[in-house]
Design brief:
alpha/beta; nine-stranded mixed beta barrel; 4 helices; 9 strands; about 30% strand; globular; disordered C terminus
Length: about 260
Amino acid sequence: MRSDNDGGIPTQHPLVAIYPGARAPVATVDTHALPGPDDVLQVHVTRYPLEPPGVMWQEPETLQLHMMAIVPRPWSEIEPLIPTHWSDGDRRELLQDRSERERHAESASVVVSEAGDSPPLLALDRLRERYPFARCIGIAADMHTMLVWLTTAHAAGQTGYLATMTAANPKEPGPVSLYASALYGWARWWHGQAAALIDERTVTIAELPPPPLALDIVEAWRPYRVNITGHDRMTFSDAPTLPRPPADPDGPEFR
């Protein structure tokens, strides 16, 4: 935070949010796009606590915020890990906390989860059906790769782009949990730029072009180059997808 006057009043919003690398279940995210080197757009991402830290904190009017939520683990996976010495009150508090996180995820513009033992595309499709109002959904396939669905339809989120975002340097992937937010930030930036250039009609998100080949995701002033492949425009069907029979009875489907 800096000050441009003698009174010490801050004129730039603080990078308080969540420390880079922290796993944030729920946060509001500010994305700010700027031209970068090598003709690659820089998307600066800043995470803020969902509840401001203290009554003196005031949200700057210049921020373009959206809610980002990391989907909580199913209760069936959490319950076996609860220590046996926990009281009923401790269990209720944990269950209430998880329910609160789930409520926020249902309202979030960007929802992120991990593929786990499922194929990333299948995990993404399940999440899309579970959170139909999310504008962008990300599935972390590993520590440096995220499969991202960016919807371009306002109804049911069935039409959009499916892309794979991969760290250019796997040893320094940066904030993988924010990859989807960065792509969503790019989409909002493009829409704003297009609307400013075209005055004679309204520009809709349905006109969004394919995502760029790369973005520099910047958190706490440090850029992380992320390559974007796939760029497939597709439409999901409402009909449930029936699982195909496994080719190998000893395959992962039976484990």
